[in-house]
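Why predict the complex rather than its parts? Because the way molecules touch one another can change local conformation, and only a joint prediction can capture that. The input here totals 488 residues.
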Amino acid sequence: MALGMLIERVAYRPLRNAPRLAPLITAIGVSIILQNIAMLIWGKQYIPFPAILPQGRHDILGATISDTQIAILLLALLIMLALILMVQKSRLGRAMRATAQSRQVASLMGIDVNRVIASTFIIGSALAAIAGVMVSAYYGLAHYYMGFLLGLKAFSAAVLGGIGNLGGAMLGGLLLGLIESFGAGYIGDLTGGFLGSHYQDVFAFFVLIAVLVFRPQGLLGARVVERA
Amino acid sequence: MSALLTVSGVSKAFGGLQALSNITLSVNAGEIFGLIGPNGAGKTTLFNTLTGLYTTDSGEVHLKDGQQREHRLNNRAPHQVLKAGLARTFQNIRLFAEMTALENVLVGRHARTTSGVIGAVLRLPATRREEADSHARAHALLKRVGIEQHANRLAKNLPYGDQRRLEIARALATEPSLLALDEPAAGMNPAERSALRELLLQLQADGLTLLLIEHDVKLVMGLCTRLAVLDYGVKIAEGTPDVVSRDPKVIAAYLGDEAI
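Output of the joint prediction:
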């Protein structure tokens, strides 16, 4: 979280009035820097991650589901609920939405815009940290580069649901996961064994391209009007 | 009467254009002070300078709060100016279009409330009290400007006149001592204008001081206790409506020199 705040301060605040592409490129740059710092600290090997989540297994209607999966699902639902409540109902959430709609007017209505944006980054990095811990606990492994693909997929999920739409991002994440799993499960049958389940990762980006071509505003996204 | 807002020698240039030259004026507590002048005279520039959107090239702006403390406003961030007690509305309506009328007013409460994320997520009693209080005040303000029935409609779906009222409610939610209104009657029909006039007089009766940019001469002359007239960034007259409307410089600015 402190890291999120620091990054906002040094990498994004100077670009506050820059065109929208500049912060995006910064994001890629910062992610590369962070990955390399992680590599320097923890090394290049996969390192075991303690099993902090329960380990049992259950059979439900012929499908096997582990306690870990249930725990992750519940935790994710809980966090999403808290996030929606925070954004829709709280003082800070209102300030965030106001700032997103117009920074200038928000500041004229008494909102310290820099502080709100910093808070958003802090919350975002905290959520990312929780997500990272859940993924590592699920696979029992951690690796400095493991976040890269996940980050791209998270971005695809957000685009699928509609950038700037919280419910959309959540729906997008769920759909993307289902598309990937079913895709990986059936791709062998569909292509007569020509392509196997290791093509799983392709689906996320196939979806990303399809959405960008056919519905750039995402499933739930309203068209974001670029204001001059 | 004591001066609530003091503007002394404020100048602002954009490149080669001198938008404001050495503007000095003071607004007394409890008055409705009008700011008039032809298009491009610098009225909105002065508003933007007062509210912290623009820095000043020279000169100072001071505002007294309820406890008679002086706050310097020039070269402060907009949210600091607002916190000192100066709120504004906009010439072109600038509501948070994707939020409901109620939420727009609640955003105005931001500077006067303190609760944070943790209180909101855990629903702590202090946070819930503060939210309940903000909601009660917001509803009361919507009722006051006469659009309570629209509380849960998105701001962008409100009729034009009601959007202007919502802007006033949102500004009032910040508990200002001085409310600056940038052409509040623009685009209103006669019925809406007279309702607005009533509302502004009520606000004055409640002890609020108003600074008003307005083109509707009838409204300004009937409403304002004093006026200042700007032309090409220079204050050319100041005084009661009677005095100002007879000032040859004002007549020249509005009608052209030949009219004299």
